[in-house]
Design brief:
By secondary structure, the protein is an alpha/beta fold. The protein folds into 2 domains: 49-279, Type I PLP-dependent aspartate aminotransferase-like (Major domain) (Aspartate Aminotransferase, domain 2, 3-Layer(aba) Sandwich); 285-421, Aspartate Aminotransferase, domain 1, CATH 3.90.1150. Helix content is 44%, strand content 14%. The chain has 16 helices and 17 strands. The protein has helices at residues 8-13, 15-30, 43-49, 71-88, 100-111, 137-140, 158-168, 186-196, 208-212, 249-260, 266-279, 282-304, 330-339, 367-371, 379-394, 398-412; strands at residues 2-3, 32-33, 60-61, 64-65, 92-94, 117-121, 143-147, 172-175, 199-203, 225-229, 240-244, 308-309, 318-322, 342-343, 345-347, 361-365, 420-421. It has a 7-stranded mixed beta sheet with strand order 5-11-10-9-8-6-7, with helices on both faces. Strands 12-13-16-15 form a 4-stranded antiparallel beta sheet, with helices on one face. α9 links the parallel β9 and β10. The longest helix has 23 residues, at 282-304. It is globular. The N and C termini lie close together (4 Å).
Length: 422
């Protein structure tokens, strides 16, 4: 059993680190990974990430660099940009942000000043830290106003969004989040942004792959700025991109460099380009729709077992589950499920009476299990394992949890992952 591509030089030079790499590869292969932010990249993406491109420093943009020796890097970045523009139908793409949070900060830096008002989804409702949460720099340096969801539906309260926008006149309105199981209505956000003269920023980090594969509506043409990570459903490396219309391109580029960062990570740019090339193929469309089909099947199976799903289900890859009716909090449930071979995260649910580090819910997604070949037929079994593991955790029955972990490993032997050979 070994990591793929093989790492013999690392093993010889630093067996401690090589051993940890091998341990992580084995762990990823032996668990049902339902963390909504994670996926398995292809071996081609893995190989691109670990190349000599990491040796090159490339501060600036193609044709306007501050170091010499950019003949190859300029061509590489141009390929990534053109693939991003083509895949999403955008006027402009910046592929240099190091991750999603800096990409979002670039939108603030480009179009707002410290103290300006911004409107984003509240963290307890499903928003991201960088959408104005009080503990984030975006909540400390800006006047962050937060919208939420309707208690009876778990869906965005657009009456509240419009009322807050008209009252506070934000410079930015941010659509999207980190725990939203339903289709994001980008045209509705765009209409409100136009009414108050705000720049609409669509954060599609979770759903970029679904958009690329035609399984979720696109914000391009509605939002002037679109930020996204390149992992999650897009199935690329840990990086980010910003897509814009022509009018807002220059401001975003200046915000990324020299505003927020120096040289891009060229090995990541290459891996992003590979992932974008993969996402442009017909089979990726099949993958994106399969992710949603798996999520819907898992939602139905969990509902049949008495789990309470926020908003009643899902339209995308993500499920948010309130465990209050199961008489267990999210954190002990998530830890028990991990011991049972099912990896997800504890998560706040809307209107959660519990604290964020000990919330009522769990969040799960189907991008990774779809990559390794699991189908809707497997989802009732996963739901059954989850139900058994949570009941065992409540009863402090570790033997049952261990038994489930063995059953999970047995199933997954037939579904290998990129990056590990058993």
């Amino acid at each position: 059993m070994t990591h793929q591509p093989p790492i013999p030089t690392l093993t010889a030079a630093d067996p401690d680190i090589a051993g940890l790499v091998e341990d992580e590869a084995r762990r990823q292969a032996e668990k049902i990974r339902l963390i909504a932010s994670e996926n398995y990249v292809s071996q081609a993406v893995l190989e691109a990430t670990g190349t000599v491109l990491t040796n090159k420093y490339s501060e600036g943009y193609a044709g306007k660099r501050y170091y010499e020796g950019q003949q190859v890097i300029d061509r590489l970045e141009a390929v990534a940009i053109e693939r991003a523009k083509s895949l999403f139908g955008a006027d402009h793409a910046n592929v240099q942000p190091y991750s999603g949070s800096p990409a979002n900060l670039a939108a603030y830096f480009a179009f707002a000043q410290p103290g300006d008002t911004v409107l984003g989804m509240g963290l307890p409702a499903g928003g991201h830290l960088t959408h104005g949460a009080s503990v984030s720099i975006t909540g400390k340096w800006f006047n962050a106003v937060q919208y939420g969801v309707r208690k009876e539906t778990g869906r965005v309260d657009f009456d509240q969004v419009r009322d807050l926008a008209k009252e506070h006149r934000p410079k930015l309105i941010i659509a999207g989040g980190t725990a939203i199981p339903r289709t994001i209505d980008f045209p509705a956000f765009a209409e409100i942004a136009r009414e108050v003269g705000a720049v609409l920023v669509a954060d599609i980090s979770h759903i970029a792959g679904l958009i690329a594969g035609g399984a979720h509506p696109s914000p391009v043409g509605h939002a002037q700025v679109v930020t996204t990570t390149t992992h999650k459903t897009l199935r690329g490396p840990r990086g980010a991109m910003i897509l814009t219309d022509a009018e807002h391109a220059k401001a975003i580029d200046k915000a990324v460099f020299p505003g927020l960062q120096g040289g891009p990570h060229n090995h990541t740019t290459a891996a992003i380009a590979v992932a974008l090339g993969e996402a442009a193929k017909p089979e990726f469309r099949d993958y994106a729709h399969a992710v949603v089909a798996n999520a819907k099947a898992l939602a139905a199976a969990l509902t049949e077992r008495g789990f309470d799903l926020v908003s009643g289900g899902t339209d995308n890859h993500l499920l948010l589950v309130d465990l209050t009716s199961k008489q267990i909090a999210g954190k002990p449930a998530a830890k028990a499920l991990d011991r049972a071979g099912i990896e997800l995260n504890f998560n706040t649910v809307p209107f959660d009476p519990r604290k964020p580090f000990d919330p009522s819910g769990i969040r799960l997604g189907t991008a990774a299990i779809t990559t390794r070949g699991l189908t809707p037929e497997h989802q009732p079994q996963i739901a059954e394992w989850m139900d058994r593991a949570i009941a065992a955790a409540a009863a402090e029955d570790e033997a049952s949890i261990d038994k489930i972990a063995g059953e999970v490993r047995d199933l997954l032997t037939a579904y290998p992952i990129p990056g590990y050979r058993a």
